[in-house]
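User: Predict the full complex structure for these chains.
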Amino acid sequence: MNPITKLINLQTLASGDILQLKTYHFKGKTGTKKVYIQSNLHGGEIVGNAVIYELIKFFSQLNEDTLHGEIFLVPMCNPTAVNQRNLFFSTGRFSPYDGLNWNRIFWDYSHEKVNINKFVKDNLNLTKEEIQQNFLNQILIKFNNKLKSINQNRGISFSEHYRNILHSLSLDANYIIDLHSSSVKAIDYIYCFDSRQKNADYFLFDYGILMNKYDGNAFDEAFLNPWLILEKKFIQQGRNITFDVESWTLELGSGMTVNQASVNKGIKGIINYLSAKKMLNLDVIIPQKTTQFVNKNNLKHYYAPQGGIIRHRLSEGTKVTYEDVLYQLLSFPKNGDLPIIMEIKSVDEGIIYDVSINDTVNQGEYILGIFPHV
Amino acid sequence: MNPITKLINLQTLASGDILQLKTYHFKGKTGTKKVYIQSNLHGGEIVGNAVIYELIKFFSQLNEDTLHGEIFLVPMCNPTAVNQRNLFFSTGRFSPYDGLNWNRIFWDYSHEKVNINKFVKDNLNLTKEEIQQNFLNQILIKFNNKLKSINQNRGISFSEHYRNILHSLSLDANYIIDLHSSSVKAIDYIYCFDSRQKNADYFLFDYGILMNKYDGNAFDEAFLNPWLILEKKFIQQGRNITFDVESWTLELGSGMTVNQASVNKGIKGIINYLSAKKMLNLDVIIPQKTTQFVNKNNLKHYYAPQGGIIRHRLSEGTKVTYEDVLYQLLSFPKNGDLPIIMEIKSVDEGIIYDVSINDTVNQGEYILGIFPHV
Amino acid sequence: MNPITKLINLQTLASGDILQLKTYHFKGKTGTKKVYIQSNLHGGEIVGNAVIYELIKFFSQLNEDTLHGEIFLVPMCNPTAVNQRNLFFSTGRFSPYDGLNWNRIFWDYSHEKVNINKFVKDNLNLTKEEIQQNFLNQILIKFNNKLKSINQNRGISFSEHYRNILHSLSLDANYIIDLHSSSVKAIDYIYCFDSRQKNADYFLFDYGILMNKYDGNAFDEAFLNPWLILEKKFIQQGRNITFDVESWTLELGSGMTVNQASVNKGIKGIINYLSAKKMLNLDVIIPQKTTQFVNKNNLKHYYAPQGGIIRHRLSEGTKVTYEDVLYQLLSFPKNGDLPIIMEIKSVDEGIIYDVSINDTVNQGEYILGIFPHV
Amino acid sequence: MNPITKLINLQTLASGDILQLKTYHFKGKTGTKKVYIQSNLHGGEIVGNAVIYELIKFFSQLNEDTLHGEIFLVPMCNPTAVNQRNLFFSTGRFSPYDGLNWNRIFWDYSHEKVNINKFVKDNLNLTKEEIQQNFLNQILIKFNNKLKSINQNRGISFSEHYRNILHSLSLDANYIIDLHSSSVKAIDYIYCFDSRQKNADYFLFDYGILMNKYDGNAFDEAFLNPWLILEKKFIQQGRNITFDVESWTLELGSGMTVNQASVNKGIKGIINYLSAKKMLNLDVIIPQKTTQFVNKNNLKHYYAPQGGIIRHRLSEGTKVTYEDVLYQLLSFPKNGDLPIIMEIKSVDEGIIYDVSINDTVNQGEYILGIFPHV
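Assistant: Here is the predicted structure of the four-chain assembly.
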């Protein structure tokens, strides 16, 4: 089964050249569900491209009977960010035009003036499938109206244009999988939303961050949030529904590098998840242990107490306990003192999940993060 | 009357050097009110430094009887941003460490878990002055508790450290005046909050933007928002109070440049405002006409429909009407076509209040903004 | 007469998108001379694109009898630089990959191990035209051998790849015209090489810089330098030849902006020059006054003696004499002193030809330049 | 023995803050030779700071009898570069003001109009020590005259100001040791000048690059070059002198990180070198094997043939032979083709000495370098 590929014009540059998105589309003979997978939304987070490359190879070897529903893949999904450099560094984490984090620009239907209570009342007695279809239609109508209301003379900012293109490819999906990595150095983990924890296990990750607070228009949040709100409204009306709509962000290791173990973990997890969702006709690996979740608001971050050079920092993945020396800070004070080394000890116990990529720091720069109590 | 100056350590750099803030403090013989004035929060917005320079000269010539209360001035209030360069450009609009807009990092008391309803109930029968003092105390206690809760080993991000220092200088002020300019090219205007429009007139600006929606942790918003919420709660309880607390952002022309007319407008407006507030014992200029306000959510923005070179763009301050050609866009398409010039016409009428600084654009870059119907 | 356009692949980006050059080629019915005109080699120097746009329109209206020889035009000749942004600034003056100034990367035949003395000896008795053809052939052979010697596995740096493409379009031209502007703010002027001053006059510029020292692999230098060396060698052999080979850089005003007067000056000058060269069958405007030249090593540059804010700087084009106040510097010292304003006076007399674009400076940043004694 | 420390004002910033250099000076009871050691000239090359920290500790434990001569240490020798960030990356390889590589700005006495032939003639019959003193005096006089000729109104660029400060600390040294690392990822090696190879061995490095061509005003070159020229002139006069003047650049591993093995190698090598030079009264380790040198013009560099993601790149330190697969390049072409993986094979045999830090590449970005035939 070969994918259908499609090129979409994304941005005409000052020079007249055009940046494009390329989508790879596999469609099974049967099934109606859709999974949408993208990678490299942040410029330096490249691991997911290797995952999508392997997935394209893998799906190409399947025949159309093995796939139920359709798979959309968008590698290199942010050319503007991917190609950006400062020296040899990938600095495409923020838009060069408005400074926005590329993953905080997305459109959340629930932020529109919409009467969800009325929708619940109108749909209370329909089947889950009917409700899901009706709500999706409302989202798509609102989205299309937004597109239509764009004034061609005023135009729109690139951030808004860009998000509209990604939404138009993905809003009607059942499952969204956004392949990130740390922009610095990190272990593998998964972002999960409340009420979807059980399905996270099929990705076979050891650790996850539970999005217990809305962090602001990330791709995964903007997609799922309206559905989570709808579910809560139905619960208030006494009806407990979980729609067949999910949203995942996989964090596959470190930035600017492609670790093979992280690639393998991504491929294996996605195939197993799609099998569990019965989109692939393959054996499902039953997770031996469940993913350990840390609430987002409970992550512990360490910042440089002053400028200097970091020495002997513990690496990502290290288990720490109270009073462990996390790192040393060598500084050369601009007074009469000799240079000194300061030891910074942990006030947390848990796993170091990410560490910064640069061992020189000004005061207040990021040093490392800890998943506490795992 | 000479100011008392004070140096505050702000950031120890990797090299061991220390960036400092310098405050200039004038204190009258009488009076208890405090005005806090800062400039250059964004790296390229330097006009306010010239205003503060002139204000320091002006206040220095006054004697202590003419001043009631105290004036705090902090020019160059963001050394990290002020000193930052990419080539010869001032690119310090966003923190180099976390990408945050330097004017979206501030702390808003009302975002804490605080029971304002209880405060209103407890204070309902006190005088306005007592209530103001009590509420300020609550803000300061909460702020100081936040400072105390900082774990020394974990440290805090530079953005948070920085905002804490500015808050510690300004939270107890009656009036906050934040001197910005456009980062691009713009006319002079003022930001004003709902219910404070009348006092805006004393700044003698032609145009203002009314902050009719909370835009997110800007310095002026974070300061005033709790008080505005408190006022609304009191109105719900039947008591109509306007506290003697105000917050202003002056936009003084263009970035990376110091236009003398903008400097003069800033000086004149601030002195007149302080006179109207009876902090200065000077004649008040009664505004001949009131400031014309545009609601923030009603600003009109134009973005490049594709990449190219901007030609014959109308400048800031131009009055436009429907169908006026705002600018031309020269592009060199990467196909067989000859280069073309496209005309972009206005779909708004009003005043062009800002225009971008760079006549090359990629698709989606900012071109200009319009205050409609003024 | 319509130009023949051609697209050349320049750079495949990480995302898979391809940046291209587009050439516009007009060919007369008669004539063998070739002029090569490019613009926007530095990312922010965009004026030349508007000049080339007008030239394409102008040449298109001519018929093939009016043009003798051929005209190659390459607007937007450096897409990598043109599209680069940091915030809304065009920062493409240096390659993001190796930090090299885009106009210091070019290949100069005379830097190869070539025996020019032998060439002179072998060609001493040939006609000027024969010698010119023979020398050009040697240059082209050497250049093509360099291309052939590139090892496909090792590849080459983007700077080298890029220069090779521009050379392959232009090495066989008689006249090269490189359209720059200041990267900051400047008056119009022209760069000229020794022995070619008389022809400079046809461009109708008031001022010029005479390249009396080799500055290092700029596009104009790298092209003309071997010919100038050859001419000197012939003079040493008693034969005084000036080959029909010239190289010009036009500096058309300021960066990131398109001043119409600079555009007009560029168009008028180029058309007049080509007419004087008899490539265009048009009346030649005889220059009323000759271009005033300043030797490159005699330019006067002013740098900030310390950090601060520039006030009341004289603008580009101002005539200054000794002791004129060039600018003021407002600084806020980080000690007990009050802010101060320092006046910086001219120690030169002449014309201010460029001034920096940013009125905040750290110590040692550029302030302005003077053409002395003009 | 405690060092004497000294603070030198380097740059007053726009904000009024001042960046300083701090020097650490150890002086023995006897001896007249001077070694000058600096680190972190490029912003991201931080390893040398850790070396200097350890050297300060080590020398502090010595008593004044053990040291002959004096040791100057300047860690963090470029605060402007050290503190610079784009995101969390150290991008201080080039000056933000003029784009110059911080290690290509230095002053070379031999580039001045000086008559070295006359000096040789005048000094031909003096002792080596007398000649060395006389030549040093000439250099210092010329340098001080340059400083005196700076016009205070014009000022000088920061690059020139900065180099003057480093020269004023180091021009009179016998030995200069400049502690760099790769800006990307690299093995340890040493830069050496022709005629000084034997002394390189005392640093105990496996590999070295022999500076067989002048590369342009690097710190080590600018210091030693006049002496090397002088030596050649004396040889032409039949006198074979090697002055007791040397210049070394140590490349200690990778950028933005501090590898302990590289630190140890730096410390051990420097102490052994100073012992061999009899500045330290310690046992000299006799090198078991000599440093293997590669001529600078013989290094082999690999660049990306097109954009994409690097997979399975061999790491720094790997020994390669012809046809070894150096890396794979995964690309997603923007046409109908499926993504592909290309294998790039070595056309060299030797040691991979550095590899780039970023696994995404645009066409022409650096991939890796090879020391051939070692």
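The first strand of chain B starts at residue 4 and ends at 12.
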